[in-house]
Amino acid sequence: MRPDTPAETVDHTAEAARLERTAGLYPEDSEALLLRAAAHLELAGDRPTATALYDRLLSSADGLENPHLVRALKASNLWEYGHEAEARAIIEGVRVASPRDPAPWVIVAEALESHDELEAAHDTFTEAVRLLLTGVPQPPQPTHPLLFGRHRVRRMLGKSHDEWDALADTVHSLPITLDELHDPKRVWSLGSENPAELEAEITRLRAELGAYREALSRPFPVAILHWPETELSELLEAYPTLTSEYPSHETHLTTIESALRELSSSGTPNLGIVTGTVPSYEAFAASELSSPGDATLLPQYATTLAARGRAVAWPPQEGAACWCGSGQTYGECHGGTV
Predict the structure, then answer these.
(1) Per-residue pLDDT for 336 more than 50?
(2) What SS3 string covers 79-103?
(3) DSSP code per residue over 123-191
């Protein structure tokens, strides 16, 4: 499904089946693809089948990149169709595991919140914020939903602002303040007969919807292909005709950064980087009935990797590692070049 496809026109069951077939063709991407398939099944109302997909992932012999995320999604899904006890047990397991990825924390906290377990949701949000943001000078973008969710629950509980709420205010970028968005009394204004109050609430709801859309959006990026040094050496040894495309690894990295900066300055949005491997590229070339030495395949390969969810957004967040794999932060590495 393309990101610009209207949600109301999507056959979620068919899309889930397509993603499952794609996962069979690309086992190295099966985790991301099957998670998307499970999401479509949840949207289709087929929650038991979604749970079966989560179980399939969790029983994978190859292990998972994000097992806590899968467990959190499974718990949230189970609770929605009556399996509260099992969901609570999984949520407690996620909390005890203390993952360093904010996504599982957000999912389990919002599951508690949606079932009116506000104190438990507040404790979960707070635990995650303390774990992931203590001593961090600038909260990375993926942690923002933790701060916003905690702020929202605290407003519903009638708690006064604290230092984490103040931090949430600083990273909030919408014209309407978090206090307005999270005001528990807003729901009553929707029943008002005062046109001014209704108009003000509609403005707030539009702003909130925009925030949700931004948080949930996974746009199809313009992706540039990156080869790690060992992969590039193997590629050029096997297919020397590609040497004209890649004179050296250092030139390759410089070209990537320059191309992305040029695209950015021209106003191109949603830029990303995909990392290639020789086996994956050879498999792609075979699927296209072409030779891996054909340079015209390279941009097609990059687009295919992006479509399979392999793109990493560029530029990296402040303080994040550089995309090139040097181990330095982006600012110290390619982000600091002119």
Answers:
(1) yes
(2) HHCCCHHHHHHHHHHHHHHCCCCHH
(3) HHHHHHHHHHHTT-SS--GGGHHHHHHHHHHHHHHTPPP-HHHHHHHHH--SSS-HHHHT-TTHHHHTT
